Amino acid sequence: MSLLELIAAADERGLAASAVACLDRCLPQPADGADPDPLRPLRAGCADGSVWPDRLAEVRAALDAVADTEGAAPQIRKLLGEAPVDRAAPELREWADACSLAALEIHRRFDMPGGDTTTHDTDLLRRCRTGGPEGGGPLVTGELRRQIQILETLAEATDTVGSGAALRRVLDLSTEGRRVLRAAVSRQARGRA
Known about the structure:
Layout: H1 3-9, H2 12-26, H3 40-47, H4 52-66, H5 73-82, H6 89-111, H7 119-130, H8 138-156, H9 163-192
C-alpha cells in the first residue's frame, strides 16, 4: 500500500501515533538544558485517547516556552497548534496527513544542497506518497520508508494485546529517524561553516 492509502486506512490511535512520530523525527537538537524529548507526554496520549487533550496542551505550552525560531521548530509548533483536541477521525486524518507531508518536506531540505526546495519538490513528495520514493533522495526515501513501517506496525497491532509493543516499535523507528536527520543537519551546518 502507498503511504496515502495507509493514512486513509489508519485508525485514530494509528493516526495520532504516526503524526506525533513525524513531528518527533523533525525536532531540532535541543538547546543545552532543554527537554531532550518534549513530545513524550503526547505519546502517552496516543495510547490513551482520554488523556490526549491534556497532553496536547502540555506539549504546546512546553514548545511555545522554548520559542526556537530556527529550522523546523516553527513548523512543528504550527502543526501542534493545528492538532485536533478531540481525536475524531476526519480532523485527525487531515492533521496526520499534514504532519506526514511536513516531515517529508523537512527531510527534502537536507537532501538538497544548501537546503533549497522548489515547487517541483512538493509535487515530487506528493508523488512519493502515492507511489514510491523514485527521485526523492536518500533522506526522503528513508523518511518515506519509516512512515510506511510505522503505519503498517500500528495497523497490525490494532485491537491486539501487542499494541503497547507496536507503540514502542514506533518510538524506536522515530528515534532512528531523528538521529539520521540530525546528522544530516549537522553535516550541512559544518559544510557552510
